[in-house]
Structure prediction request, 189 residues.
Amino acid sequence: MNRTELAGRAEAIIFAGGEPVSLDRIAQVLEVRTTEVEAALELLKEKYNTPESGVHLLLLENTAQFCTNPEFAGSIRSVLELRRNTPLSQAAMEVLAVIAYNQPVTKAFVEQVRGVDCSGVIGSLMQKGLLEERGRLELPGRPLLYGTTENFLRCFQMSSISELPPVPSQEEAEDGEEPSSAPERQKES
Prediction:
């Protein structure tokens, strides 16, 4: 099977799936290597991911999904009479940032960083599908661990959490300079 035919078959599978489809699963079904599927998807990205295209191919870690071009969101909302999602509050953005850069983390960790109770904000972000429970910490009381979801990646148009911009150091933040390198991330164990 040549790359064009493989791209067509992968396109049909992804379109019919609606939800993100694993590249490994596509490769298994089409009886090819995952690297061949990745090459075929690059053809599809060239075809779809243009400013004038209404549909884009979104790659999230090891999955692929079709989505609408964000530039046309207003038209889609009007036609489908969808209400506009309310923007995230400053508190929600802060909680998302703390969790995204340090995940998986406990609510207590987020509250320690922010200095205020975060129960309501975390609950709201979970309802929106931006956060999920990632298990429990092996400490007394076994507190829940939280992390971001694929929906978070989709909303912020990232394929993986590694695409988060680097956090500026304290001096750079005070001086307003650009960060020179990403700091080491600390994870709770």
Notes: The beta strands are 21-22, 55-60, 63-68, 105-106, 131-136, 144-148.
